[in-house]
Design brief:
This protein is of the alpha/beta class. It contains seven helices and 15 strands.
Amino acid sequence: MIRIALCDDNKEDMLQLHQKIIEWYRENSKNQSVSITEYSDSVYLSSVIDAGDSHDVFFLDVEMPKVDGFQLADKIRNKLPAAIIVFLTSHSELAPDGYKFRALRYVSKLVFSQKLPEALEAVQKEFSALESGYLVVPHYTDALRIPYNEILYVQHILRSSQIYTLRQGVIKDNRGLKTIYSVIGNKRFIYIDRSTFVNIDFIRELKGNEIILRTGESLAISRPMLANVKETIVRMWR
């Protein structure tokens, strides 16, 4: 199931969006169940996110009182870095600011009916990729499945690889780092030195020759890789 949050202080706009999303999924993605929650109060949605309640996709009106769409997006990126964000607005000149938060799409309310279907198609493709992305770690006769969007970084230490995760702690994998990187095969992961690769979605800041993760942890970037790492991260953030 894909869990969608709609946040707009204009209830008529939100009702129209709700109906359009239901219609699109009914016609184009019959195998995908959808749960939609409406929030007309952005302050309340902010508290929901703080409480740890999760959604997969957020449709956010940019212009709202007290807490606007960009402020919500900033919180979402810190709490739910893999969440999909779509901005809605009547002012297209605000679009460049929205992409700072890695929004998947920016839909103008002035051409809402024409632009929404393409945005929903992009949302579904992105969600399907995230949902199907798992790293299976073998352990004797057992196996553990780790979602890609739970992996902070992977580091080779001594004779094993250590997988640092958001909620499952540190998981040992006896495979080599190159093997794990190849198995994941996802452009969101990047090497920062010969023994470490990182999930870009969890990087909060580039600072000198270090990256700062959203957990507060800092990791050093090797000097030979520094220029390429910075260029790749900035490009992905855009």
